[in-house]
Specification:
Layout: E1 4-7, E2 11-18, E3 32-38, H1 40-50, E4 55-57, E5 59-62, H2 65-77, E6 84-87, E7 94-100, E8 106-111, H3 122-130, E9 133-136, H4 141-154, E10 157-162, H5 170-173, E11 178-181, H6 183-190, H7 195-206, E12 210-214, E13 220-223, E14 228-231, H8 244-257, H9 262-276, H10 289-298
Parallel strand pairs: 1-4, 1-9, 2-7, 5-6, 9-10, 10-11, 11-12
Antiparallel strand pairs: 2-3, 7-8, 12-13, 13-14
Helix pairs in contact: 1-8, 3-4, 6-7, 8-9, 9-10
């Protein structure tokens, strides 16, 4: 049974490992390069799948080289692709990402392509109704709002990976059960000065079950309408941080359907994200469930 379905960006990434960021109008030799699948929900689904949950992507892909690669990449990791519509003659969503060795940071330039917007089919709606959790990221906004309404009607939880401050996102925020914004999104959307105030205001505005604000190297915090609870990052030698936030959200989705409390979900997801950063590639470096359990235990936390 497919427990987690997702609607959002699916991006053909080209990753360049570089020693440092170059100055403008100069040349710099890369240490290496590789193609990779990307996108918040798309990568989150791969993470959840690798952690032992059955997932499916709902979306539109092209039949160009990028689209063919992205579909095969899902299949490589076991993500169900039966709910993907393939469109001919379109340009895929693509990006070029520089990964700097000296700062362990990334810089991304993207082209959204020209694929038509997703229009939900009856089969896609049924998959949403039958799932335990729907992941969205603010891309394909109209379809995501329709999907979230369908999810609410059938008891499917909606997890929103809030990263981009897109126009109209309040329509999706109002349908969200599990709201996981970056600190930048939370502060920007609420016009507040700190994460705790932002969490409380988001809860007041939209009344989700839970709000989890991610704060990068500082870990993050959770707010359930009553209490603020902080969660840590777990120790890791960072090699590639690209996609760590996407992996966090996918791990959180997996933890929810495994039946963990929301506080446990935070610790689990933080550990998965940390482990991912120890290898190259947002998807291929996601650990399996057993590795995460051992890692948590070694660092003094048991689920």
């Amino acid at each position: 049974m497919i427990k987690i379905v997702g609607i959002g960006a699916c991006v053909m990434d080209t990753l360049y490992n570089i020693p440092h960021f170059p100055k403008e109008d100069t040349k710099l030799r890369a240490v290496g390069s590789k193609p990779a699948g990307g996108g918040p929900v798309a990568t989150g689904l791969v993470a959840a799948q690798k952690l032992g949950e059955q997932t499916a992507y709902i979306g539109v892909l092209s039949d160009d080289n990028g689209g063919v690669f992205l579909k095969k990449d899902f299949e490589k990791y076991g993500v169900n692709t039966d709910l993907i519509a393939i469109k001919s003659g379109c340009r895929s969503f693509s990006s070029v990402i520089w990964l700097s060795a000296d700062t362990t940071s990334r810089t991304c330039v993207y082209d959204k392509g020209d694929l038509p917007p997703l229009s939900l089919s009856d089969a896609q709606k049924k998959a949403i109704a039958d799932a335990e959790l729907l992941m969205v990221d603010g891309n394909e906004l109209d379809a995501a709002v329709e999907a979230a309404k369908c999810a609410k009607k059938h008891g499917t939880k909606v997890l929103y990976d809030c990263g981009g401050l897109y126009d109209g996102v309040e329509r999706l925020l109002s349908l969200t059960d599990i709201m996981i914004p970056s600190e930048e999104f939370a502060l920007g959307h609420t016009d507040t000065q700190d994460a705790e105030s932002a969490a409380k205001k988001l809860y007041e505005m939209y009344s989700p079950e839970i709000i989890v604000i991610t704060q990068g190297k500082r870990g993050g915090l959770m707010f359930d309408g009553k209490n603020i609870v902080e969660y840590p990052i777990y120790p890791a030698v960072v090699v590639d941080s690209n996609g760590s936030g996407d992996v966090f959200h996918g791990a959180f989705a997996a933890a929810v359907v495994k039946g963990y409390t929301y506080e446990q979900c935070c610790h689990f997801s933080s550990a998965v994200s940390g482990l991912k950063c120890t290898g190259i590639g947002a998807r291929e470096s996601v650990p399996n469930f057993e590795t995460v359990m051992t890692y948590l235990k070694e660092n003094g936390y048991e689920l």
